[in-house]
Amino acid sequence: MTTLPKKILMNRPFNFGAGPATLPQEVLSEAASEMLDWHGSGMSVMEMSHRGSEFGIIYEQVQTDLRELLAVPAHFKILFMQGGGQAQNAIVPLNLARAGSADFVVTGSWSERSQQEARKYCSVNVAASSEPGSFISLPEPASWKLNPTASYVHICSNETIHGVEFHELPDLKALGSDAPLVIDFSSHVASRPVDWSRVGLAFGGAQKNLGPAGLTLVIVREDLLDRALPICPSAFNYQLLADNQSMFNTPPSYAIYIAGLVFQWLKRQGGIAAMEARNQAKAALLYDTIDHSRLYYNQVAHNCRSRMNVPFFLRDENLNAAFLAGARDHHLLQLKGHKLVGGMRASIYNAMPLEGVQALVAYLLDFEKMHG
Ligand SMILES: *Cc1c(COP(=O)(O)O)cnc(C)c1O
Q1: Cα dihedral 141, 146, 148, 149 sign
Q2: Residue where a domain stops, chosen among 267, 288, 303
Q3: Domain end: 243, 267, 291, which one?
Q4: Is residue 333 assigned to a domain?
Q5: I need a surface site. Which of 136, 262, 330, 356 has the fewest CB within 10 A?
Q6: Are 181 and 174 within 8 A, CB to CB?
């Protein structure tokens, strides 16, 4: 048995859960120290008016930091909403589907759910699907059957369950389409830069890579704000939210504050380009170990393997329970795969340090030696 370095044993276990997911320890400590009294205000952030001057300071900093980190151009609005990624599956068509139809590229269970939900509000064209190949590759953009009158084209840029990621966003203009591209980037937002010239709207739940559950990030091009369907609920109307600094109603203020601490932490880490390099190194180490193993495997095509969510399987499924129990003994938590695909999954978001992936790799090798 490899013994883990002392420093790691003294710290918290490494948590590979897909979401709600691990947060930087520095952020949790900072939040704990400010829990009862934020900056001498005599209040917890949870107890402040969202319209008061204290929360105003927090909110402005969060907006500024996020815009800087993700290099969001001035003609995009940053909205903070509630309801999670899945609410956006309805909120996006309610706001954008004026022309009555939308295109979906189905590359895993999240984009599949999105297109199912959108059918309540508009007609749906599945422009391409990798379901026949069991969602282990991405359909070539040149093969997509786009509808020229679609209100938007939806993709999930990182499929959290199947572990498939668009390493490059499609260029719809080059495919002859003027429709805005909508991306569900819930599970890889802030893990790499975004090419905003290709995006109309991006949404993501915060609980994978930004902060706690309860906050949903929407970044939307200004010219898309004015197309909501008359039945769109006011609290979900992008224009109303944009006009009211995301405070049409009470925003998830504590979750916004924690995300703000994460943004400050990201800046201290060197920003998104630095995170991307670390994420690439972490993913390469883990995939390399899996690919060189006789016990573990991952079937996703190399050109679209997710750098955030790494599903893998044991060739002998009878060892699954022993693998997970041993992992817990090694302070490696939440490695069980999603019930739809089974096996294991290691989510290695921004807040997972390289040391965590190294500890996982050491355990993988150890377990294989014992059982291979
Ligand atoms: C987790 C996740 C969602 C769902 O988020 P909820 O906040 O639970 O609605 C949607 N899309 C992707 C890609 C996800 O990973």
Answers
A1: negative
A2: 267
A3: 267
A4: yes
A5: 136
A6: no
Alpha carbon of residue 75 to chain centroid: 23
Assessment of whether the complete model's pTM goes beyond 0.90? yes
Residues with CB under 6 A from ligand 1: 19, 84-86, 110, 156, 160, 184, 186-187, 205, 208
Cα(367) to centroid of ligand 1, in Å?
A: 32
- 162 and 252 share a domain? yes
Domain span including residue 328: 271-371
Cα 61 to chain centroid distance, Å, stands at 22
On whether the CB atoms of residues 27 and 43 are closer than 8 A, the answer is no
Which atom, in ligand 1's list, is nearest to the CA of 205?
Answer: 7
- DSSP element (H, E) containing 313: strand 309-314
Name the helix (H) or strand (E) containing 356.
helix 354-371
Known catalytic residues are 110, 184, 208
- Compute the distance between CA of residue 68 and CA of residue 256 in angstroms, rounded to an integer: 16
Q: Quick check: 314 and 296 in contact, CB under 8 A?
A: yes
127-183 pLDDT, tens digit per residue, is 999 999 999 999 999 999 999 999 999 999 999 999 999 999 999 999 999 999 999
Please write the tens of the pLDDT for every residue from 337-369: 999 999 999 999 999 999 999 999 999 999 999
pLDDT in tens, 50-60: 999 999 999 99
Is 357 found in the same domain as 294?
Answer: yes
Residues in the chain, total = 372
Asked whether the bond before 20 is cis by omega within 30 degrees of 0, the reply is yes
Could you tell me if residue 313 is inside a domain?
yes
Q: Check which CATH number belongs to the domain holding 229 and give it.
A: 3.40.640.10
What are 253-275's pLDDT values in tens digits? Answer: 999 999 999 999 999 999 999 99
Note whether 59 and 156 are same-domain residues: yes
- Same domain, residue pair 213 and 334: no
24 domain residue, yes or no? no
Q: Please tell me the total count of domains within the chain.
A: 2
Residue 310 within a domain: yes
pLDDT digits (tens, 9 = 90+) for 271-288: 999 999 999 999 999 999
Task: Return the amino acid letter for 337.
Answer: G
Which residue puts its alpha carbon closest to atom 7 of ligand 1? 84
Distance between Cα 60 and ligand 1 center (Å): 26
State whether 107 and 186 are in the same domain: yes
